[in-house]
Design a protein that fits this description.
alpha/beta, Rossmann fold, 6-stranded parallel sheet, globular
């Protein structure tokens, strides 16, 4: 079972979820290049100019570890990285778990991604001009749960630890990507985990992913924010466990 973290995060974000599966699975946690304890010198702006570069790394990592028929658990942008990896290397995974996925963050006609194009560009411009200020302003909003400020503080600190230049590049790749056309190509059983209140990936996005993947189900967690792996880890782990055991609750 491979756990992949979201933008501005690292493998440490899975510390409350991954242990629930260690008795049945070989669990693999890793940092995307440019995050956490990864080798920053390995960052290649050309390779990582799209999510395909990150998907290529996931495939290479799994092949190096001999993974076949595994379970991929991806949070936020890593959900689409997992979709691309599964598309690139059929047989690598048997199931996908997409936590707060979004194939496109920008509204487009009837598609509601949650942001206007102007809003995304304003967000990116703030990140360009003031990385620390962006982290302090955005992390608590992304995390939600204002009654638990320690969660927003942890995400703020995680954002602040990332290399500013790599963060700027990865943010553009993340928030300007459009992977809607890739969804139909992945026929694996897929669990979409959605929080009831998520400013980054609203309910309409989770429903879109469910409706445009051939074998996807949507489970709505009784949790707020975009990071249920931190704010509601037990419920997150329980939903994943039910899915991999084939006993998922009635989908939303």
């Amino acid at each position: 079972m491979l756990f992949a973290h979201g933008f501005g995060c690292d493998q440490h974000m899975w510390r409350f979820v991954a242990p629930a599966f260690e008795d049945r699975y070989r669990t693999v946690l890793f940092d995307h290049v440019g995050a956490g304890g990864s080798d920053l010198s390995a960052y290649d702006p050309a390779k990582y100019a799209s999510l395909d570069g990150y998907a290529e790394d996931v495939v290479a990592l799994c092949r190096a570890l001999g993974v076949q028929g595994g379970v991929f658990v991806g949070h936020s942008v890593s959900a689409m990285i997992g979709v691309l990896a599964a598309k690139r290397a059929p047989g690598l995974f048997a199931r996908l778990v997409l936590v707060g996925p979004s194939p496109r963050y920008i509204d487009d006609g009837d598609y509601v991604g949650g942001f206007s194009e102007a809003q995304i560009h304003e967000l990116l411009e703030l990140l360009d001009s003031n990385h620390m200020g962006w982290a302090q302003a955005m992390a608590p909003v992304i995390m939600g749960n204002p009654d638990r400020p320690e969660l927003g503080q942890e995400l703020t600190e995680s954002f602040c630890r990332t290399d500013p230049e790599i963060a700027r590049r990865f943010a553009r790749v993340t928030f300007l990507s459009d992977n809607r056309a890739d969804l139909a190509d992945v026929t694996l059983p897929t669990l979409v985990l959605q929080c009831t209140q998520d400013v980054i990936a609203p309910m309409t996005v989770g429903e879109y992913v469910r409706d445009h993947m051939p074998d996807a189900s949507l489970v709505v967690l009784d949790a707020a924010g975009h990071c249920p792996n931190l704010s509601a880890p037990t419920e997150t782990a329980d939903a994943i466990d039910a899915f991999v055991r084939g006993t998922s609750p009635a989908p939303a």
